[in-house]
Design a protein that fits this description.
It is globular, with a radius of gyration of 21 Å. The two termini are 29 Å apart. The model has no long low-confidence stretch (mean pLDDT 93). It is built from 11 helices and 12 strands. The chain has 339 residues and is of the alpha/beta class. Helix 10 runs parallel beside helix 11. Bound molecules: threonylcarbamoyladenylate (TXA) and magnesium ion (MG). The site of threonylcarbamoyladenylate has 29 residues, from strand 3, strand 4 and strand 6.
Length: 339
């Protein structure tokens, strides 16, 4: 199913055999819990308790009040909250954890599907485990086409990165488990409280959040700065030898690819034939939302171009909001082989 973040591989969240088919199709290890998608008139704990997803009474009254405030503010949208689970939720959905991750998507097709189904939908991103999340129906076809019966085509995803995953403890402490489409600063503003987050710059360590997630098949190297800011000597450290007709895939954050390649080869004296560089720009004007929307498709494109032998990616110059999520995904994509 389409959602505003990425496409999801959906099944009945309350049916263990449907869940088993999701894990199978994705080749996903069962220690990596799923997000359950709901569609409610208004986002609050009472609605989730009615669906037999959440046990409200396991939260302090302060935590209950905070949960309702967050759900009221960020649902429907790219925001997932981890809450104490009801026994009716199969253990497979939560990898045996006492908590469950829940999200109300705002994509109208996802909402209509959940309402017609009449049950909540468990949906991980519709990619094979550890790979790049699909942001269009053709990308789902490329990932899982041989394993699934239907793809609901809802067009390209508007956000392009997964939801922000936040856990709420019994005593109302908030912890960031995955940066995503909802900025942490917004969450802190609504909560009037601090969101704890593990070491800045390091991949987060939620269950199933391996360092090497969201990885292309090719090796991806994350540059320490925009490519034109790197001294030629520094840049050459990132340029392993190419085979005879091999190319470098260059993922630029902003600017026009042709201009950047011209400056690299002319002004910077890069001793590399410009035809050996294939560059994509996430957002020519440097717009963060556009960059997020294009990130996975651009990575996928460079990854699937046969002549490209490795990918060089510029870091995201912004480290907050969507920039936090983009930086997290690029870091993980660069850590293939070091889970
Ligand atoms: O935007 C999204 O969130 C997309 C769309 C389809 O909704 N879904 C998605 O699901 O990204 P997935 O399965 O690729 O990532 C879910 C992550 C898990 O890897 C895990 O880290 C976290 O959510 N998660 C799920 N249940 C959890 C729990 N009970 N406690 C902590 N983390 C949990
Ligand atoms: Mg995923």
């Amino acid at each position: 199913m389409p959602t505003e973040t990425v496409y999801g591989l959906a099944g009945n969240a309350m049916d263990a055999s449907a869940l088993a088919r999701i894990f199978n199709a994705k080749e996903r290890p069962t220690f990596d819990p799923l997000i359950i998608h709901v569609s409610l008139g208004s986002g609050n704990l009472a609605g989730l308790e009615k669906l037999k997803l959440v046990r409200k009474s396991l939260l302090s009254s302060r935590a209950q009040e905070l949960a309702d405030r967050l759900l009221g503010a960020f649902w429907p949208g790219p925001f997932t909250l981890v809450l104490p689970k009801d026994d009716a939720v199969p253990d497979l959905a939560t990898s045996g954890l006492p908590t469950v991750a829940i999200r109300m998507p705002r994509h109208p097709v996802a909402q209509a599907l959940i309402e017609r189904a009449g049950f909540p939908l468990a949906a991980p991103s519709a990619n094979r485990f550890g790979r790049i999340s699909p942001t269009s129906a053709p990308d789902v076809l490329a990932e899982l086409g041989d394993r699934i019966e239907w793809i609901l085509d809802g067009g390209p995803c508007e956000v392009g990165l997964e939801s922000t995953v936040l856990s709420l403890s019994q005593d109302a402490a908030l912890t960031l488990l995955r940066p995503g489409g909802t900025p942490v600063a917004e969450i802190e503003r609504v909560a009037s409280a601090e969101v704890r987050s593990p070491r800045a710059g390091a991949p987060l360590q939620g269950p199933g959040m391996l360092a090497s997630h969201y990885a292309p098949e090719k090796r991806l190297k994350l540059l320490p700065d925009a490519i034109l800011n790197l001294a030629p000597g520094k840049l050459s450290e990132f340029l392993p030898a190419l085979s005879k007709d091999g190319k470098i895939g260059l993922l630029l954050f902003e600017g026009a690819p042709e201009d950047t390649i011209r400056q690299l080869t002319a002004d910077k004296g890069l001793s590399c034939d410009p035809r050996r560089i294939e560059a994509r720009s996430l957002s020519p004007k440097g717009n963060l939302e556009e960059a997020a929307r294009n990130l996975f498709a651009a990575l996928r494109q460079l990854d699937s171009t046969p002549s490209i032998e490795y990918i060089l990616a510029e870091p995201c110059p912004v480290r907050t909001g969507l920039g936090h999520a983009i930086s997290d995904r690029l870091l993980r994509a660069s850590q293939k082989g070091n889970p």
